[in-house]
UniProtKB/TrEMBL annotation:
Keywords for the protein's UniProt record, in alphabetical order: Autophagy, Repeat, WD repeat
Matching Pfam families: PROPPIN
Entry's family note: Belongs to the WD repeat PROPPIN family.
GO cellular component, one term: cytoplasm
Stated name of the protein: WD repeat domain phosphoinositide-interacting protein 2
GO biological process, one term: autophagy
InterPro entries: PROPPIN, WD40/YVTN_repeat-like_dom_sf, WD40_repeat_dom_sf, WD40_rpt
Amino acid sequence: VEARLPTLPQPNLITIPPRPVTTTGTQWARFRASAARTVTMANPSLNFITFNQDHSCLAVGTSKGFRIYHTDPFSRIFSSDDGNIAIIEMLFSTSLVALILSPRHLIIQNTKRASVICELTFPSAVLAVRLNRKRLAVILEEEIYLYDISNMSLLHTITTSPNPSAICALSPSSENCFIAYPLPKPREDSDSRRPAHAPPQSTYVSPTSGEVLVFDTLTLKAVNVIEAHRSPLSCICLNSDGTLLATASETGTIIRVFSIPRGQKLYQFRRGTYPSTIYSMSFNLSSTLLCVSSTSDTVHIF
């Protein structure tokens, strides 16, 4: 965000007083219901939260627009009340943001000029969006679309295995401009399993594997396949300069870190003994720390 906007006034909070002695139960219930409706209208529901690529800003998508905050010092620097924002992604600290307002529709908006730069429509719902200064990646359940961010031209379409969790990571770096995602596993059906009406060369795509495919978005070529886990993947992330990849499987007890693009295993961390679903992982800017959050109601820092 190129220009700091004045801080907007906070909505008035409604304090529900203690139940008065002279108020009947029915009257009190009506009062509480009315107050709850007012609070809901004043405070839109939260849909999406994400940091930008260098963690200097926090973007929040709500049912009534989006907000952008500086992280240090923490302050609100932009606010829009337009649209039900399902996904928002920033391009570092610039005024460009990618917005998903309807499932198949993506908008690139300039917040400084309050203008729409381009609009893209996809064949199925957009599950995630990733940005760096060179590329825009749009992740669908079975496809990844890669765009040149300078002119928004479509460069390449990657076919993936079914990926409803949108497990995918794009390096913030413009030099090591890699994207990582679960390796697709196509194989031919055996004659005994293939229906009579199926084409002779029909293929079956297995669920997400524990292997990661590393793809160079500049040369548009796959550079490595990393055998990260035996179980299917649940989360992956790349560091700020695109040289480290962290992976976690559905089991969630072990986190591994690999060099990119060589794929050499550098570190292995144990999160815990009991299985847990890992939802988020992030390196710090100097790549000395890795933060992991999961369904275990804990945050681990390695």
